[in-house]
Amino acid sequence: MALRKASSYSKKHVVPFTRISKIKSRSYIKTVPPQKIVKFYMGVAKNNFPHRLRVLSEHRVQIRDNSLEACRQFIHKQLDTNLAGQYYFRVIPFPHHIQRENKMLTGAGADRMQTGMQLSFGKSVGKAAIVNPGDPIFVIDLPNEKAVVLARTLIRQIRSKLPGTVRVAYEKRAL
Predict the structure, then answer these.
(1) How far apart (Å, rounded) are the C-alpha atoms in residues 40 and 52?
(2) What's the pLDDT tens digit per position in 86-116?
(3) Using CA atoms, how far apart are residues 78 and 81, in angstroms rounded to an integer?
(4) What dihedral angle (degrees, nearest 10) is formed by the CA atoms of 89, 47, 51, 79?
């Protein structure tokens, strides 16, 4: 199955690019983009909820940090208003991979102002997390079946913000 969403950032064979060196002659990245994900753990930290939902990736994709943050904000806000602290929510992948862009000028006279693809290393524009098939993206621990139904609808609403396809794995734990 071919991926169509975000095909330029969802390459199948991507190498993590994190080369940051303190020696100036070996450093390829001049500036590292700031971290956009504010929190990775939300809700009640005690892990005694019987129902667990895991959002799993079905493809090897890059998930940008602003996409993870948008999903995190939406799910956290909805869970906090509807369940009021009766949940545990976690964002699993950490965006290490630095993405680059070779900016090109457009318009009249642009061909005299840039060199095209000659020495086109690109400037850093953002960060992404490389996720393999079957890796969890989000983990949500919930107290009851009603909360599970709510969380499934929230996950259905954020699917358009994530590249590739995701599936939900449900697990009932004995406590």
Answers:
(1) 17
(2) 999 999 999 988 888 877 777 766 566 566 6
(3) 5
(4) -30
Provide DSSP, 14-47.
--------SSTTT---S-PPPP----SEEE--S-
Cα 61 → chain centroid: 9
Measure the CA–CA gap between 39 and 107, rounded to whole angstroms.
Answer: 42
Contact indicator for 141, 49 with CB cutoff of 8 Å? yes
> Which distant-in-sequence residues (6+ apart) come within 8 Å of 53 by Cβ?
139, 140, 142, 148, 151, 152, 155, 168, 169, 170, 171
Check if CATH label 3.90.1170.10 holds for domain 52-98+124-172: yes
Asked whether residue 140 carries a pLDDT value surpassing 90, the answer given is: yes
pTM over 0.85: no
Instruction: Give the CA distances from residue 53 to residues 67, 128, 137, 168, in Å, rounded to whole numbers and listed in that order.
Output: 20, 23, 11, 7
> Is 31 in contact with 98 (CB distance < 8 Å)?
no
**Distance between CA atoms of residues 52 and 143, nearest Å:** 9
100 vs 21: which has the higher pLDDT: 100
Give the residue from 130, 128, 122, 125 showing the smallest Cα distance to 28: 122
Sketch the domain layout of the chain as residue ranges: 52-98+124-172
